[in-house]
């Protein structure tokens, strides 16, 4: 059964977790590396498990694994053989499952909640390039070429025990269709697919968000559709658009609201967890049913989301 549909039969909404990579940086990790958060699978996997645990404790109903930038090609560039790369991808799922199972073993954590889900992150091709291409999607690759890139790691993640795929930060319709076309090869798996957007109407490559979401209605294994890694100021309009063109649950997990400066690789601005939580109330009122955070959000942001939505 579709795990998201099942959970939404029991609860009016699901709280997603927050950032992994920027949270690891906040805890002292140096991610100035093409592998980004996947680097910590090599160096300090126990810290990834702890981040997952902290998000569950903060109220997350879904954990997203640290496999966003974990690819065979990326690990090969570090001299790692395919078997080692596959084991690291499997570990990204195992760490989330271990944190989930430990959390759920405490009966006090079960009050008013269902056992959390683990979503295996499938980041875009641009994440492997590590040059910001996930924010424009101009890869120059066909759907078939993108399917060849994503297929092997999706196979590994599917075999590792995740509840579903989180196909996230997708910048262009070509890549979205490639991922959707791969899903029948994993008939036991469901997926959500979330785009990254440049404004209230267009995804990162400039295509219509409405048209992109509507075209994905044809793929029955897509359990939810939405947006992530996007400025919160655009989320209201994007939710309104999604409601017009899809019957699937809508998910949103934007960035904190701080601005990323590509040249300096730094963040500027402020966004309190309380402000983020208040925005979550509006997102839910507009129709989003899966709500969490992306870059620069923390367990405090997720705690605020859960607290406000359950008030």
From TrEMBL:
GO terms for molecular function: methyltransferase activity. Keywords: Metal-binding, Methyltransferase, Transferase, Zinc. It comes from the Bacteria. It holds the Pfam family S-methyl_trans. The keyword Cell inner membrane does not apply. Zn(2+) binds at residues 229, 294-295. GO terms for biological process: methylation. Signal peptide: none annotated. Residues 2-309 form the Hcy-binding domain. The keyword Coiled coil does not apply. Its EC number is 2.1.1.10. This is Homocysteine S-methyltransferase. It comes from Candidatus Chloroploca mongolica.
């Amino acid at each position: 059964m579709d795990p998201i549909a099942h959970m939404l039969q029991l609860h009016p909404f699901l709280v997603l977790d927050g950032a992994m990579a920027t949270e690891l940086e906040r805890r002292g990790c140096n991610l100035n590396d093409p592998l980004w958060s996947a680097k910590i699978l090599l160096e300090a996997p126990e810290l990834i498990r702890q981040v997952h645990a902290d998000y569950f404790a903060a109220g997350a109903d879904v954990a997203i694994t640290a496999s966003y930038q974990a690819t065979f090609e990326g690990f090969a560039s570090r001299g790692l053989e395919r078997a080692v790369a596959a084991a690291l991808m499997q570990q990204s799922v195992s760490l989330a499952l271990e944190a989930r199972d430990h959390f759920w073993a405490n009966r006090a954590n079960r009050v008013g909640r269902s056992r959390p889900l683990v979503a295996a992150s499938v980041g875009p091709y641009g994440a492997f390039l590590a040059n910001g291409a996930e924010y424009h999607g101009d890869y120059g690759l066909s759907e078939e070429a993108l399917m060849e890139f994503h297929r092997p790691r999706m196979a590994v993640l599917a075999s590792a025990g995740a509840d579903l795929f989180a196909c996230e930060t997708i910048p262009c319709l070509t890549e979205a269709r490639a991922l959707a076309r791969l899903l029948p090869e994993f008939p036991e798996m469901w997926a959500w697919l979330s785009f990254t957007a440049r404004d209230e109407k267009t995804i990162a490559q400039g295509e219509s968000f409405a048209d992109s979401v509507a075209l994905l209605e044809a793929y029955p294994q897509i359990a939810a559709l939405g947006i992530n890694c996007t400025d919160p100021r655009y989320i209201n309009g994007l939710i309104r658009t999604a409601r017009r063109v899809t019957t699937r649950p809508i998910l949103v997990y934007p960035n904190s609201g701080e601005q990323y400066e590509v040249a300096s690789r730094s963040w500027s601005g402020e966004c309190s967890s309380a402000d983020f939580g208040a925005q979550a109330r509006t997102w839910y009122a507009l129709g989003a049913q899966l709500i969490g955070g992306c870059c620069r959000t923390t367990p405090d942001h997720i705690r605020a989301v859960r607290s406000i939505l359950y008030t």
